[in-house]
Each structure stands twice: as structure tokens, then as C-alpha cells.
Amino acid sequence: MRHQFDDMDQQNSAASLGMWLFMMTEVMFFGGFFLGYSIYRSEYFESFVNGSHHLAMFLGGLNTVVLITSSVTMAFAVRAAQLGKKKHITAFLVMTLLLACTFMVVKFIEYKDKWDHHLIPGMDFVWTDPGDPRTVQLFYGFYFCMTGMHGLHVIIGVGLIIWLLIRVKQNKFTSEYYAPIENFGLYWHFVDLIWIFLFPLLYLIGGLHE
To answer: Domain 8-203 is in which class?
Structure first.
């Protein structure tokens, strides 16, 4: 327990409050992206729909399943921490880690496909399908900014899971002290929630397509 706190409950409450405040800043951060995307989508709806037709629906759906599953395994890890079950904490954290890495591998495959087809916004952007290339490029600008920032949060999560696994191995957590695991669980559920919003906004904008 840190010296500035009277007891463990007070320390855990302070940690939880700090985490919720951090989450509020994250909501405002991603909220700016969502607002900007919504404004430009309403202005250039046809171009955004045409651009979305080149996104890999299957891979986006697969990543949605992967992240939702990782949220479940993370919830089990938090529960195991509350019960002080070290082996179960480790097992569920490892599962969450593997699922997070799977998400990033799938996202890399998606990004590489866009690179190969010159759909990266910039000088080499090529668009031959219907729609104004300039406004379609705007769609891909939002796509890469929003999924890129989300991916960065996943990578940060991977690093934090590794740190938690090291702390578990060092016997730093007990059934009385598990705040870091619980707070990371909140962070990870937030990352999952952001993707649940991103998937329909980006991939389903024009309805189901091949």
C-alpha cells in the first residue's frame, strides 16, 4: 500500500477514480474522430459508401469476434484476480494477449491490401471506381486515422498485459489488491467498445457487400 493512503480500500478507490477520469478523456478524444467522420460522411455519403466497398468485410467481422472474445477472457482474468487465483489470472491474461496479437495480425493484412491497391491517402492514391477520388481519399483518411489510433491502443494494451503477467509472476497481486488488473480490464473493454462503433461506421456504411 502507498504511504499516502490510509488503507487498501482507499488506494483502490483512488486508482479506480483516476482510471475513470482517464477513460473520460479517451471518450472525448475518439468522440472528435466520430464527429468529424459523421459530418463528412453526410456531406460526401456516396464517396464514403464507394470507399467502404473496398474494405474487407470478413476480416473486419473476424476482428470484431476476436475483440469481443478477448473482452470475455479479460473479464474472467479480473474475476480470477478477485478470487486470488494466480494460475487462472495468468491463463486468461495470456488468452487476452494472444487474441490482441491476432487482432493486430488481421489488421496488418488489411493495411497491406490497401497498400498493394494504392488506397493509402497521399500522392500514390489511385481510384478507378465510381466516385470523386478526392472525397474517397477523405474516407480512407478517416479510416486509417481512426483504425490506426485504435490499433495503437491495442498495442499499448499488449504491453500492459505483458507487464501484468510479470507482476502476477512476482506475486504482486492478492484477493485484496488487484486494482491494476481491474483497471486494465476497464481499459480493454473500452478498446473493444470503440471497435464495435468503428466496425459499422466504416465497414457497414453502404450495407452488406462482398
So the answer is: mainly alpha
